[in-house]
Amino acid sequence: MPIVPDAHATPAPSRAPHATPAPSRAPRVQRVAVIAAPPVSMFNLAIPEMLFGKVEIDGGPGYETVICAPDPGPVTTTGGLDLLVPHGLDAVDAADTVVLAGSGSYTDPDPRILDVLRRAAAAGKRIASICTGAFALAEAGLLDGRAATTYWAYREQLADRHPAVDLQGDVLFVQDGPLLTSSGYAAGIDLCLHVIRTDHGAAVANTVARLALVAPVRPGGQTQFTQTPLPPERGISFADTRAWAMGHLDEPLTLTDLARHAGTSVRTLSRRFHAETGVSPLQWLLHQRVERAKELLETTSLGMEQVARASGLGTGDSLRQHLLRRTGLTPSAYRSSFSRLTVPVQSQGPYGTGTRPAAS
User: Fold this and answer.
1) By CB count within 10 A, which of 208, 217, 336, 346 is most buried?
2) In whole angstroms, what is the distance from residue 339 CA to residue 350 CA?
3) pLDDT tens, position by position, 127-152
4) Predicted pLDDT at 216
5) Is the sign of the CA dihedral 242, 247, 250, 252 positive or negative?
6) Nearest-CA neighbor of 225 among 284, 171, 272?
C-alpha cells in the first residue's frame, strides 16, 4: 500500500541563518528476493531484475534485487542451461518483497521453498508469483480462500489440485492483500510494473516501462484486489487511435470521435477495441485519464482543478472520486505520498526528517 506521511507533522524549528543544514535521510532501498526453483524459467527470472533494476528514486536505486535458490550454485533452467545463483533462501528473510519465478517442477515444489514462503507470509512480507509460481504459493496454503491466477494452460490443473483457491480467469495478474499472482510470460511484466506503481507512483512506473520498451501499466482494479483483463491476440489494431487519444485526453472525447479517427463505425470500434485491449473504449479512456492525473500530481504543482481539466476528468470532485476508487487516496494524499517535487521545508516524513512535497 502507498505510504501516507503523517498529516500532523510539523516543520522543524528554523535554524540560524548560517547554520549547517542537517543532511536528509535518503529513502530506504527496498529489497526484493527472487526465488529460482530449478528448472527455472530464464524469462520469468529476468523480469523482476530488469524492471526493479531500472527504478531510480532521488538519484539512487529504488530496489535491490537478489536471486536465490534452495541450493546455491548452478541452477538448471527450463532451456537446459545452468545459471550460477550464489544466494540461498536465507536471502528471503531480509527481503521486503518475495517473487517466485515459474518453474518446470511446479507440481512438486521443494519443501524448503514452501517453508520459506510460509515464514515470509507470517512476517507480513509481500509475496508475488509469476506463471507457474502460483502452484508453490497454493501448496504452501497461502492462496486458500484468496483470488489468484496462473498461466492459462495450467489454470484447470491448479483448480483441480487446489479447489480452495478462488481462481480468476482471463486476467494478467491478481492482487489479494499482500499476495500477487500473474499469468504466464509477459504478464510478469505487468505484475512488476504494478508493484512499482504501488510503491512509487505512476510516473516512476511509466518511466520504467519506457526504459524497458514495454507497454505502460495496463488497466487495473481496486487497491486490495486488482484484476487486469488479458487481451486476446486477435482483431485489427487501434494503436494509432489510442496514440491519438493519448494526445487529446484533456478534450471531451466520445465514442464517435474515436470511431471517426479509426475510420470505422462506433459498433465496430467497440467490438474490436474490446477484443484487442480487453476493455471497452470508454473504460480505456478513463484508465488513461486517471493515470495522467496521477502523473500530474506526482510531477507538477498544478492545483486540483487544473489537474482534473488537464487529464480530462473535468472537475476536482470527479478527480477525487476516481482517484479514491482506484487508489484509496484523495488527490492531496496521493500527492503527499508520491510527489517528486520538493521544497526546502523540513518535516517528519515516512523516512524521518527531510524535505516534503511542494504544496499545490
Assistant:
1) 208
2) 13
3) 999 999 999 999 999 999 999 999 98
4) 67
5) negative
6) 171
User: If we measure between CA atoms, which residue out of 133, 148, 216 comes closest to residue 178?
Assistant: 148
Distance from the Cα of residue 34 to its chain's centroid: 16
What percent of the chain has pLDDT above 70? 81
| Cα distance between residue 263 and residue 322, in whole Å | 31
The domain boundary, picked from 198, 229, 260, lies at 229
Residue 216 shares a structural domain with residue 257: no
Nearest CA to 40 out of 136, 149, 123, 181 is that of 136
CB-based burial of residue 216 (10 Å sphere; 0-12 exposed, 13-18 middle, 19+ buried)? middle
- Rounded Cα gap, residues 281 and 34, in angstroms: 36
Give the SS3 label for residue 252.
Answer: coil
The model carries a pTM of 0.69
- Band (209; pLDDT cuts 50, 70, 90): confident
Contact 182, 172 (CB under 8 A): yes
User: Which cell is 342 given?
Assistant: 520538493
Residue-range definition of the domain harbouring residue 303: 239-338
Examine the domain organization and report whether 113 and 79 are in the same domain.
yes
- What distances in angstroms separate CA 179 from CA 7, 118, 136, 167, one per listed residue? 28, 12, 13, 13
* Nearest residue to 136 via CA among 115, 163, 151: 115
Let me know whether 268 and 156 are in one domain: no
In whole angstroms, what is the distance from residue 297 CA to residue 327 CA? 13
Q: Tell whether 211 and 280 lie within a shared domain.
A: no
Q: Do both 289 and 206 map to the same domain?
A: no
Average pLDDT over residues 334-343: 76
Is pLDDT above 50 for 351?
no
Residue 7, pLDDT above cutoff 90: no
Amino acid at 244: W
Q: What is the dihedral of CA 236, 238, 239, 245, to 10 degrees?
A: 180
Q: Is residue 353 part of a domain?
A: no
Specify the length of the chain in residues. 360
Closest CA to 63 of 85, 31, 95: 31
Tell me which of 176, 206, 229 is where a domain ends.
Answer: 229
Q: Let me know if residue 193 belongs to a domain.
A: yes
Closest C-alpha among 117, 132, 139, 222 to residue 177: 222
